Amino acid sequence: MAHTILTSNCQNKPICLLGLLVLTLSVMQTSDATDPIPVGKTGIWSPNSTNYIQWAEETTFTVGDSIAFHFTAGKDSVLQVQQGDYINCITGSPIYAFPNDTGYNVAMFNYSGTCYFISGIKDHCLKNQKFRVLVRANTNENPSPPPPNGASAIFLSFIGYLGAFAASSLLLAF
Fold it and tell me: Which of the ends of the chain has fewer CB neighbours closer than 10 A, N or C?
């Protein structure tokens, strides 16, 4: 759809310019989400396929990251559990039991702290198919400066939009 707008012979220039401005602003607002990190060095969730504990200790996780579990559907599962259940491989009372019918689950970290994951099959957990993740607060974001007073903020936003509009008008003129 955006391709058609950009290549069409627009008869109504103000409408075209407004469309281009909206498109430009929407592209600027895209999220910076990343692809899920495959669990373990092999990317496969199965007993003895990797040292999950070592992998989790060597990997840095921050709020907003996600991890992906790949396994044979119906043959394994993923549980998020409390610390005591993690230590003792107790599968009966998870915080969350991920569905096991697809063979693919994604866990997203929405808060900082420690999260514990184990296999839903106790024997697999006892073979160290488990790990804990320390999720850190996202420190890449710079703290916001104090907000300006309302009138100047509106004025600055208006000036910014006018600048974007003028720039897109110049681009269309050439």
Answer: C
Structure tokens at 85: 């259940």
Grouped pLDDT means (10 residues each) for the chain, 174 residues: 35 52 40 77 86 94 95 94 98 95 94 96 96 89 51 47 54 54
Contact 132, 115 (CB under 8 A): yes
Provide the H-helix boundaries in 39-121: 52-58, 83-88
Give the DSSP H or E segment for 115: strand 113-119
What Cα–Cα distance (Å) separates residue 170 from each residue in 20, 21, 22, 165, 173? 12, 12, 16, 9, 5
